[in-house]
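[09:14] KT: can someone run the structure on this one? pasting the chain below
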Amino acid sequence: MLTKAPKGTNDMLPDKSHIWQYLEDEIRKICKEYNFKEIRTPVFEHTELFERGVGDTTDVVQKEMYTFMDKGDRSITLRPEGTSPCARLYIEHGLFNIPQPAKLFYIISCYRYENKQAGRYREFHQFGAESLGSQEPSVDAELMSLAMLLYERIGLKNLKLNINSIGCPKCRSAYNEKLKEYLKPYYDNLCDTCKSRFDKNPLRILDCKSDICKGIVKDAPLLLDCICDECSDHFEKVKSYLEGMGIEYHIDPLIVRGLDYYTKTVFEIIADNKNSNSTICGGGRYDGLIEELGHAPTPATGFALGLERLILTMEEQGIEIPEPNDTEIFVASIGEDAAKFTQAITFGLRKEGIKAECDHLNRSVKAQMKFANKLNAKYTIVLGDDEINNKKAGLKCMENGEITEIDLDVKKIADALR
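[09:31] RB: done, structure tokens below
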């Protein structure tokens, strides 16, 4: 049906656009305060970028990517997330040559083939922040503080910051062997996807959404208990930085995140709502990603949050974003000649930076006033032959009905409205 959007996608209607604009403004404002610079990457990339970056054993790569062959017989994928494209951009454009860390952010659309559910769609939008070029634990804490402060400004309540460390490749390799020993007796009961992960990447089994697999791993050994001294020291310093900023956190040893590029610190922010708990932000350190994509080893940290999920959480918590007043003045007209003059006046006011509107449906004056009310216009002027000939008109305040005579001069009208 050509008049219906594809499953898992949404249209943004005029009565909701102010919410998105508000959130994007708040994001750009806080990123400016943290000295993060905006980037924009293509909506599609070479498939290999996500296979190598995200990991070919992840649900994203195995089940969810929109991948196709283009006319040049190249495998192309609509971006399912923003970190890998950001890393590619960092390498391709030599951002390792600018003062480090390179602090970047993006507001993008992403695409994953999955079943539609609350706050999760096949086309969705992400805000992501990435800090590349520093291995210091202070960067991890800074990213968490940015996300928490953004939520505080928006007005979200009942938030919980959960953190964990999944170690480095060295200590994680030892843990994988211990995990496989634990899982061996349950191998036949694992889902097919987790069976394929058993030898190549058993850590991914901990992130499986299957209830059976969840039950199997609930008593598995904890990775946090197996990390090396260097990773343990890094994690302790992350905690100390959070404590220094007065940011409350909770240690959740079951957080592993769903993408292969994570190392050491991982975190999630949970919104505790009346009817449900939902993860509204996730991120962590990914020190191996830049090297995996073919560049010199480069430490990095980042997070991403879904804007649809954020808006849903705001609605659940009763947070309303006031709709801005769309129209400062509505200029009504009586007759064809007045209509031409009215459009000229309206154009002049717009040049002065005034949000002005006029009639385009040849309505009666009464109907034009009703339309002005629907536009929430603060003021109206009605122009007919008498007003045009006398070069004066009545400026009506729609809130109290008070009418003030004013010269039909664009600058004078604009000054009166300011």
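[09:33] KT: thanks! The longest helix spans residues 137-154.
[09:34] RB: yep, looked fine to me
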